Amino acid sequence: FLWPVRGTVISNYGVKSNGLRNDGINIRAKRGHPVLAAENGVVAYAGNELRGFGNLLLIKHADGWVTAYAHNEQLLVKRGQKIKRGQKISTIGSTGNVSSPQLHFEIRRGNKARDPKKLLRGRA
Predict the structure, then answer these.
(1) Reduced to 3 states, what is the DSSP secondary structure of residue 69?
(2) Measured between alpha carbons, how far is residue 121 from residues 3, 31, 81, 90, 102 in Å?
(3) DSSP SS3 for 99
(4) Which of 9, 25, 30, 120 has the smallest C-beta neighbourhood within 10 Å, fewest atoms?
């Protein structure tokens, strides 16, 4: 998988000190900066109905993989649309339960969250 945005990881995958859990990573970036698809796939969800995530994209990939992109300012793709690896799919925002511009990014296989940093190529 490609890094979806260049920025600083401000929250890592896993259990936090307050007992909460991050099923992905949060990457700080400039508002409006492009978010890129981590891999080829099809948009499974594009909307803001999931509480706390703001404008959210879910992209289904081969072999049961799914990537999630949350807190977007603007969604540039629609449900059912085919996506190419590296394609601009949204822009960085601070929607949902965050106050600073960032991307919450998850990689899942089936319903199991995986540590994105172990599956991403290169650097943020």
Answers:
(1) strand
(2) 7, 24, 24, 20, 20
(3) coil
(4) 30
